Amino acid sequence: MNHSIYTADKATHLKVVIAGLLAGTAIVATTLTVHLAQPELSLQKATTLAVYQARPMHARIEMAQR
Asked: Which end of the chain, N or C, is less packed with Cβ atoms under 10 Å?
């Protein structure tokens, strides 16, 4: 096995590509398994943030920009 990127041959490149594909497949399989086994984890509740008071600092910035 070559330990340098500069002297890597075709076999070393193939090993790296296969290792990357296997890792990607494992991540996708794990994600799908968790998602299908526990669908309630993917539910997100919508949160609304209402601002009822003016921010005085914001008004000062607008005045300074004029």
From this structure: C
